[in-house]
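Handout, page 2. Input:
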Amino acid sequence: MQKSSLALGLNGRKLTDKDIFSKSDPYVVISRRRRVEDGGWTPIRISETIKDNLNPRWSEFLIDLTELPDANEDLKIEVFDDGWKDTSIGVVHITISKLEQAHKTRTPLPITDKKMKNGGEILVRSFRMDFGGSENGSGPIASQGMSGGFTLPGGYNGTPNVHSSQTVCPPQTTFPPPTDADSHWIEEHGDLCNLPDLVLDIIAEYLEPKDILQLLDSCPCFEDFRRFLPKYQEINGEDFRKEQHPNQRDGDGDCDGINPEKYFDGPEMNQGAKSIKLNFRWKDQGWGHRKGQVWIQLIRNEEVLADSRKQFHELAPHEYREREVVIKEHPVVDLLKRGDKLRFMLSVGGGGGHYLTVKNFKVVVELKKY
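Output:
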């Protein structure tokens, strides 16, 4: 027996967080109006729960066309936070044709809660009609959704007034074929929303984080690439042993009592940061006054925006020691944004005879979600 169905894939984006101690655990419910006077809603599909995620990607739904409402009636798509008392994050009411249009134009669907507050967005990543598949889902798939002359039942309510021996042929609603502009967009960009995860994994191997960010900024259809953004960025510095010039005295530089100079600049950052952790092994000349220092500056447009030296001040020891510094809730971290860079500074100390040796300098930046 053949059946017609709709394959529908939905993503959530920037959902409102309803949890206190963690992120929401969202799931999505698709419903249609009941055929009774109370005008209530009947769920036809419920997704799995995606734990601790405000940008979920739910598994694709396969919906028999007889379960869908008439062409001029709305579906209700509502996102809930799964918990001891499920909380609605937001809802959108939309017809099937507008749902297809949102997929074709890559237009996000805003959702709102009961108080009409913003709950985030829903992205229609896939929308495919199967008009020739069998019970096990095999059969030709219409790659352009309902466009190109395909039809959708427009008045069928699940209880046709026909004898059991008759073939059910519900009224049909015809949707227009794609326009020239639609065809041009598909030819130019392709339909990346419908690519399998394995193909996305292969593509992502060839993309740098900055490339993924440019894709995310360019079109909602690239939303699935967000999961490939790194959570951490590592920066490594070269080992050095530096001697201060004997004629340079303390305070000859531009900071009180030190002679600051650049150790190295990190790469341009692609995202903001939650924290910065430094690990290195260091020592000074091994005798006399201790003066060696290492710290971070935040650089934007070649200007110093923030400096960590005073808040995380420590002098190099006479013998080799490991140092670990974790910077949080400081302007170097809080103000960092895309396009900025971290500058790593050092001061050996003036007066002659002073050395500063640094080995195994490693930095781990915990990145904010983009």
